[in-house]
Amino acid sequence: MEKTFIKNRKELREYLESVMTKTYEKLREEYELEYGQNLLKTYIIESHLSSPSNIPKLKDYGMSLSKTGDTTLHVLNVVRDDLRGTFYVDTFNPRFWLLHTTDRSLFTDRFIKKMVSTTMNSLDHPWLWTQFLENLGEQGIFRGLSLKYDDIFVEDDEEKIPVKTLSMRLWGTVASRVLNILKEDKELRHAVSLSGIGIKRYFDEESFVIDDISFWGKFTAKGTSIDGHFHILSGIKKDYESVIKRIEDEYAITYTKFETGFRFRGSPLTIILKKEIEDLNLFLKELLAARKPFRIWGVTKFLDKDFVKVCATDLHNGDNIDLEISSQWIRIYLPHGSCGNTVLRLFTNIQRYYDSEATLEGIENERIV
């Protein structure tokens, strides 16, 4: 079946299942794919756009969007030079889109990251923090992991830092045990930041899926059950969205004006650091650099040498966010109507680039994630 002729969800399901099972059989028998044959990939995108037709145009990319017989399913064709990619855009959940593709990762990864990272485009990745990925590993056979840590908050004296960077890929039955050993090491535990995991989940004796899951919402699937892949996607979307909704509904700051004054609702969230910030100026320089990974810009006001207030703007969609930062914690004030995904982007990237043991807490030290 040609990709461009898919007209509805039934045909999409049949096509994706055909690709997934054929690539799995090829890898099982010959340990490599044929030229032009690629694994099924699905990307989750957090969106505040009303329709895929509002996706901003990108420099150097040609983009065309086609409708199908389903109003929540579109076909996005992308071209750059002699490279092409087709994405099947599922907007059934208007906040969290699914983009399925069977084209080369080298092209599709770059396009998705470019599409999401442009300023003020109302698109973002989900940000799967380390504990979230660990929990996913417990929901099937934990078959592999990727670690990637890079302390970007240091400039000098790198030779005195126990861990500046840590990168590892491990696929095999000992993955979970190795992860626990690393987390128990006193000098390594601040740097054990999961960037991806691999799980295998059976749904009956013959139906299973193997999904490699990246922290930024990329899922690479093979196996015998496309419904198993959809099931994993659905569960992760549901769990992630529930955290976002909780942040926005319970913690976002709002107020009501009365004749006698104001009534405030909501409360701050706090990122608790196990690794103290030694140079707050250097930390702020990187945090507020208005670029990836944090995508935040802000104005600072020091109230003490170890305490600063920040009025910040999220470059994802222009929302405001206020911060208070000390050497041991980052307090987040999210205004009502601002995007809760900003909080999880900040938290997850603190784990990846500063302290993998950081936690996110609410009122009275209640763990949010």
Keywords:
7 helices, 33% strand, 19 strands, 3 domains, 6-stranded antiparallel β-sheet, alpha+beta, Double Stranded RNA Binding Domain
Write up this protein.
The chain has about 375 residues and is of the alpha+beta class. The chain folds into three domains: about 5-125, no CATH class; about 130-245, no CATH class; about 270-365, Double Stranded RNA Binding Domain (2-Layer Sandwich), CATH 3.30.160. The chain contains seven helices and 19 strands. Strand 3 and strand 4 (about 85-90) form a beta hairpin. The model has no long low-confidence stretch (mean pLDDT about 90).
Note the topology:
Blueprint: H1 9-30, E1 40-47, E2 62-67, E3 73-80, E4 83-90, E5 96-101, H2 105-117, E6 123-124, H3 130-137, E7 141-150, E8 165-171, H4 175-184, E9 194-202, E10 208-214, E11 218-223, H5 226-251, E12 254-258, E13 261-265, E14 269-272, H6 280-287, E15 296-304, E16 307-314, E17 320-326, E18 329-333, H7 341-353, E19 359-361
Antiparallel strand pairs: 1-5, 1-6, 1-11, 2-3, 3-4, 4-5, 7-8, 7-9, 9-10, 10-11, 12-13, 14-18, 14-19, 15-16, 16-17, 17-18
Task: Provide a short characterization of the protein structure.
The protein contains seven helices and 19 strands. By secondary structure, it is of the alpha+beta class.
Cα gyration radius (Å): 22 Å
Termini gap: 42 Å
What profile does the largest beta sheet have? 11 strands, antiparallel
* Low-confidence runs of at least 5 consecutive residues: none
- The residue fraction in helices comes out at 25-40%
Summed over residues and divided by their number, the pLDDT gives a mean of 92
Into which percentage range does the β-strand content fall? 25-35%
The strand count comes to: 19
Overall form: globular
Question: Structural class of the secondary elements?
Answer: alpha+beta
